[in-house]
């Protein structure tokens, strides 16, 4: 291949046999993806897994029809042509990312797969000048539209309102356990525990640069510590809290953000301007924590606000007293 030039072929340059081969390989890939979705969801979301099993079977049926058409028109040997060989063809997410997708994302991605395939074939048919090619591409577009109807029928059969509600509740609970709880714990620790060292340093030195360095060190150090602690404390197998790596990252990142929120104002060289800005940000952080507790943890907002603001105020006062002394 000449450097700077793509080795992929243009769709308009493909022969009818190659277009058919491309459709066959695409149906095979989509069926494989749907089966991976089904296996990923089977334990926690059996109704959705049944939907994807049915969609995979439907893709298999279309693949067999396309192979029969190829056999009748071009013979037994099907050219090796895949999506990645054709410029501009709709790409698919790497299958190894399935483990990291939520239920809603999987549902949305499956719907997008069908829309992309149907739209691609329809646009290709509109550009085709040869009557036989136009008919072939139009048939493929109609087949993809049929997939969408089949998916809807399968959802109506397997994914009743009750089953969908149960699965949505389970997905929300998993999201809370894997991301919200660890992230909230990190945000609370980063926002509250760093108050004392940051404001003690600020009032003891009245040096914004030194205060920023202390705040940066405290925030990053707390983030690393909290992240590792969360990751190694529970592998998620028995508790059902999900991947320890995801929880560790959620905790570590939110801890760091919580501390940096009131450390960054000390980049401002004027001490009182920086300090007043930091205090305002502290109150915003504490109210954000209370809102998250109310929104995801079903804690009454004013009770959460009282607990968080009281705790933050006590730590803040300790920092000011120690630094001012």
UniProtKB/TrEMBL annotation:
Principal location class: membrane
Pfam families, alphabetized: Rubrerythrin (PF02915), VIT1 (PF01988)
Keyword rRNA processing: no
Superkingdom classification of source: Bacteria
Residue stretches spanning the membrane: 274-292, 304-324
GO biological process entries: intracellular manganese ion homeostasis
Gene Ontology terms: cellular component: endomembrane system
The keyword Aminoacyl-tRNA synthetase is assigned to this record: no
Domain Rubrerythrin diiron-binding: start-end pairs: 18-154
Compartment(s) where it occurs, according to its Swiss-Prot or TrEMBL record: Endomembrane system
Topology within the bilayer: Multi-pass membrane protein
Molecular function terms from GO: manganese ion transmembrane transporter activity; metal ion binding; oxidoreductase activity
Keywords for the protein's UniProt record, in alphabetical order: Membrane, Transmembrane, Transmembrane helix
Name of this chain's protein: Rubrerythrin
Organism of origin: Limimaricola pyoseonensis
């Amino acid at each position: 291949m000449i450097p700077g030039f793509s080795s992929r072929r243009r769709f308009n340059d493909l022969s009818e046999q190659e277009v058919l081969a491309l459709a066959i390989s695409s149906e095979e890939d989509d069926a494989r993806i749907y089966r991976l979705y089904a296996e990923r969801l089977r334990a926690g979301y059996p109704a959705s897994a049944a939907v994807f099993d049915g969609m995979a079977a439907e893709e298999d049926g279309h693949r067999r029809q396309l192979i029969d058409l190829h056999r009748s028109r071009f013979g037994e040997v099907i050219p090796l042509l895949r999506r990645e060989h054709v410029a501009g063809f709709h790409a698919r997410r790497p299958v190894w990312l399935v483990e990291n997708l939520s239920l809603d994302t999987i549902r949305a991605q499956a719907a997008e797969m069908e829309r992309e395939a149907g739209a691609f074939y329809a646009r290709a048919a509109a550009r085709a000048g040869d009557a036989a090619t136009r008919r072939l591409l139009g048939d493929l577009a109609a087949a993809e539209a049929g997939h969408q109807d089949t998916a809807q029928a399968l959802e109506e059969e397997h994914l009743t309102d009750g089953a969908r509600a149960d699965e949505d509740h389970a997905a929300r609970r998993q999201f809370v356990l894997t991301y919200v709880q660890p992230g909230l714990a990190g945000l609370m620790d980063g926002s509250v525990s760093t108050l004392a060292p940051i404001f003690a340093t600020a009032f003891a030195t009245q040096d914004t640069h030194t205060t920023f360095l202390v705040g940066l060190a405290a925030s990053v150090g707390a983030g690393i510590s909290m992240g590792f602690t969360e990751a190694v404390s529970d592998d998620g197998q028995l508790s059902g809290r999900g991947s320890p790596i995801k929880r560790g990252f959620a905790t570590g990142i939110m801890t760091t953000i919580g501390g940096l929120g009131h450390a960054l104002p000390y980049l401002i060289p004027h001490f009182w301007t920086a300090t007043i800005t930091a205090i305002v940000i502290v109150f915003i952080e504490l109210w954000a924590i209370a809102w998250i507790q109310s929104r995801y943890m079903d804690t009454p907002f004013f009770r959460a606000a009282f607990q968080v603001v009281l705790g933050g105020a006590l730590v803040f006062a300790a920092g000011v007293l120690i630094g001012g002394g």
